[in-house]
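Supplementary Methods. Inverse-folding protocol.

Structures were first reduced to a discrete structure-token string of length 679. This string, shown here, constituted the complete conditioning input.
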């Protein structure tokens, strides 16, 4: 099959198609092998499905894969667009979960290694290797072993072959001749020899580790060799040993499926039911459950947070349902970004503090005030944005319903909207797909009704545009326009449609949805722990566990890895200390650091009249926003972070001259807040 795909590629056929769900190629994509017939399609589906490979013991395969596919379609790009083929090919990359389909694993394990090797001369010459002799000679040594011998069409790509004397047109012709020469070779033989080399490397590693008996799979396989096993043996270690004629190690355990998660989230109702079932005193049952959870009562941390989420939803729904054109926009009711100082238009900072009840605000701050830093997990640190973490725990239902309501507002009240009513369904496709996959779909009639309702809105009315005179630094007079856009009467029509659908969805699905949120995240941690055991033969270390569990621990346990371990039935680490060095609310802290660094309030005009000054304020603003990260690191490390630990190189320090001069000042100003007003 690999040889057939190589032949089709050399003839100009596109082998894979990358459908992007997002313009950023590093976001989730979908890869499809399109140049296959029915029999080849059936073989790929059977051999390269992640679940099928895992059922044969291939738990070492990553959940998420970064696919750099530039070599797979390069031949087709050269045939059809030879002048720009390399540029187009550089965009052939994707990041996606392997569970999304068998084509992703087939591409990663089978096609990319083969095509990368065969087309290496094309890319090496294009890159202008700083060490062309060594790089090109090694490349051609590999190709020679595959049966790709020296020929005039190949010679020009070799070191000293005359490539540098070709103009751009000559290079294009040389690449096309390279394809023609390859197509004339025995492609089945090339693919077979490549497979033999890969399998030979796996066999050599296996025999190297076979001192007294056949090694365990985890002892023999490196990451590249794992892909070899996936490509040529369907991920089946036992099939590979049979190929070598080796008996399996008596201690080898092939896990064909991960155990079913058992989550111990408890709750008062379960304690009462258990007491009745086993004839226990109810108070004793509650006491035993509390002791198991490591608490003073039997209400689990998850149940507490789910109850807060339910209350938040009621107030969130009410705020949107009662909104009128005379009110401000609700952008800021949901916190989805860090606080930053600057002139850019954005959400109303901490709008939720004005719209949510005091009791609810207090409970959100209490239940989402702790977090865990995966690199330094020995301390529960302060979460500076509890409302943001709460919204993340709630999941896609928040971004969907909030986003739809905001679109309706800005279409009617202006000045502009990120999408139209007609484009609303497509704009929120990812959240809609996530809810549908969870079994709690939004009824599609919502979008049909909103599109139909647009004809009942008022005519567009232009909003006033303002002209501002600016005195520029060079003494000339400039102008800046502000305002503008348009509005339409009829917001209440859209609001009521959205409210009716939102409440209908919540009445039917909210309880199930919230349970799915915590169940899914905890189950994923459980499965990752047991996947690690399947691959390595032992549980993850504490730091490894922290990397797996940080998100779920922060969402549902306030960063408490001990409580999370108990909930998924794993051996719990000792209780973690909780440290808080934040002496003031997050917004006040950032503004205090910004002012201490010499920052001042400024408007967009300053970027026109005095750009260096405005850019200095922008640099200080970024560092002020990052001051919460600095304090988190202090909490986790028990000392001030070093510049490398903080990631100081990610920031600009021109305002201070350079990093060496700016870091001591920044350090002093952030740590100066430790003596500030207490919460």
């Amino acid at each position: 099959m690999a040889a057939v795909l190589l032949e089709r590629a050399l003839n100009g056929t596109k082998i894979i198609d990358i459908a992007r769900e997002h313009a950023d190629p590093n976001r989730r994509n979908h890869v499809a092998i399109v140049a296959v017939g029915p029999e080849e399609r059936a073989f790929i589906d059977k051999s390269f499905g992640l679940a099928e490979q895992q059922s044969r013991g291939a738990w070492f395969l990553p959940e998420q894969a970064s696919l750099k596919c530039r070599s797979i379609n390069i031949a087709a790009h050269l045939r059809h667009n030879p002048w720009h083929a390399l540029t187009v090919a550089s965009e052939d990359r994707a990041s996606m979960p392997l569970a999304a389909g068998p084509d992703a694993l087939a591409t990663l394990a089978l096609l990319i290694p083969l095509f990368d090797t065969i087309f290496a001369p094309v890319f090496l010459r294009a890159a202008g290797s700083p060490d062309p002799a060594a790089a090109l000679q090694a490349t051609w040594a590999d190709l020679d072993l595959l049966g790709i011998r020296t020929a005039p069409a190949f010679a020009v790509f070799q070191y000293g072959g005359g490539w540098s004397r070709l103009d751009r047109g000559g290079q294009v012709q040389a690449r096309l001749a390279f394809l023609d020469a390859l197509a004339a070779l025995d492609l089945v033989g090339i693919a077979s020899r490549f497979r033999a080399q890969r399998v030979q490397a796996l066999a050599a590693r296996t025999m190297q580790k076979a001192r007294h008996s056949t090694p365990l799979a985890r002892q023999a396989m490196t990451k590249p060799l794992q892909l070899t096993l996936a490509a040529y043996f369907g991920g089946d270690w036992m099939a590979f040993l049979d190929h070598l004629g080796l008996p399996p190690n008596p201690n080898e355990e092939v896990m064909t499926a991960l155990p079913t998660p058992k989550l111990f989230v408890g709750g008062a109702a379960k304690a009462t039911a258990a007491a009745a079932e086993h004839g226990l005193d109810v108070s004793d049952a509650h006491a035993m459950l509390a002791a198991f959870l490591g608490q003073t009562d039997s209400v689990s941390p998850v149940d507490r947070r789910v109850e807060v989420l339910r209350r938040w939803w009621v107030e969130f729904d009410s705020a949107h349902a009662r909104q009128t054109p005379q009110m401000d926009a609700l952008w800021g009711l949901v916190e989805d970004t860090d606080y930053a100082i600057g002139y850019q238009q954005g959400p109303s900072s901490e709008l939720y503090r004005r719209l949510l009840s005091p009791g609810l605000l207090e409970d959100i701050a209490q239940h989402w005030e702790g977090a865990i830093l995966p690199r330094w997990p020995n301390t529960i640190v302060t979460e500076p944005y509890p409302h943001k973490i709460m919204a993340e725990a709630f999941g896609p239902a928040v971004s969907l319903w909030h986003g739809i309501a905001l679109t309706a507002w800005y279409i009617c009240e202006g000045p502009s909207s990120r999408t139209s009513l007609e484009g609303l369904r497509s704009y929120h496709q990812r959240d809609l797909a996530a809810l549908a996959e969870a079994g709690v779909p939004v009824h599609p009639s919502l979008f049909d009704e909103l599109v139909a309702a647009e004809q009942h809105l008022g005519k567009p009315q232009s909003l006033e545009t303002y002209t501002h005179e600016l005195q520029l630094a060079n003494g000339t007079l400039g102008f800046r326009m502000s305002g503008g856009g348009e509005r339409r009467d009829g917001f209440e029509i859209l609001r009521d449609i959205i409210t009716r659908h939102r409440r209908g969805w919540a009445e039917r699905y909210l309880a199930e949805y919230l349970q799915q949120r915590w169940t899914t995240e905890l189950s994923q941690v459980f499965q990752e722990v047991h996947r690690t055991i399947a691959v390595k033969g032992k549980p993850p270390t504490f730091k490894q566990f922290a990397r797996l569990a940080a998100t779920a621990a922060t969402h549902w346990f306030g960063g408490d890895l001990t409580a999370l371990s108990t909930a998924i039935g794993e051996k719990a680490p000792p209780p973690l200390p909780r440290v808080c060095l934040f002496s003031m609310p997050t917004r006040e802290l950032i503004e205090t650091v910004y002012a201490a660094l010499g920052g001042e309030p400024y408007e967009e005009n300053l970027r026109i009249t005095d750009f260096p000054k405005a850019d200095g304020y922008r640099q200080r603003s970024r560092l002020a926003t990052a001051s919460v990260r600095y304090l988190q690191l202090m909490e986790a490390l028990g000392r001030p972070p070093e510049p490398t630990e903080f990631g100081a190189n990610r920031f600009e320090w021109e305002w201070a001259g350079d990093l060496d001069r700016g870091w001591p000042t920044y350090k002093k100003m952030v740590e100066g807040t430790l003596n500030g007003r207490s919460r």
